[in-house]
Inverse folding.
């Protein structure tokens, strides 16, 4: 459910920008920008009469973009706009992004810079 919600909200926001969203690993042809997300936990958080009634999912969203997009002011600004869009879409869809996005650099040494969004999604069950 959480992965479906995440995929849908990011697809709806980014598809028109020609940015594709992938679960766990990028697939398909090379792209200047893409997003990969993963679920890193779905924790039972609150109990009532020994019954779990709230769960918290931990989600990591990574926005990859070619390093060359940082070379010019206009493309840097476009990258920043996508970062802002991702964060606002996540928050509008119930995901908490307590620390915002952070720059992780070229984590895989593949010529893509990465902005990471660590998110939580709380829900009653």
């Amino acid at each position: 459910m959480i992965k479906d919600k995440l995929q849908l909200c990011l697809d709806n926001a980014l598809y028109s920008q020609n940015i594709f969203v992938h679960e766990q690993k990028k697939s398909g042809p090379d792209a200047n920008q893409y997003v990969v997300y993963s679920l890193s936990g779905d924790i039972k958080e609150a109990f009532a009469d020994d019954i779990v009634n709230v769960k918290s999912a931990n989600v990591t969203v990574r926005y990859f973009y070619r390093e060359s997009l940082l070379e010019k002011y206009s493309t840097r600004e476009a990258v920043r706009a996508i970062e802002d869009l991702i964060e606002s879409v996540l928050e509008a869809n119930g995901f908490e992004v307590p620390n915002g996005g952070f720059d992780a650099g070229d984590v895989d040494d593949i010529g893509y810079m990465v902005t990471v969004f660590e998110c939580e999604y709380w829900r009653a069950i």
In short: The longest helix spans residues 73-92. Helices lie at 2-14, 73-92. The domain at 2-124 is CATH 3.30.2000.10 (STM4215-like).
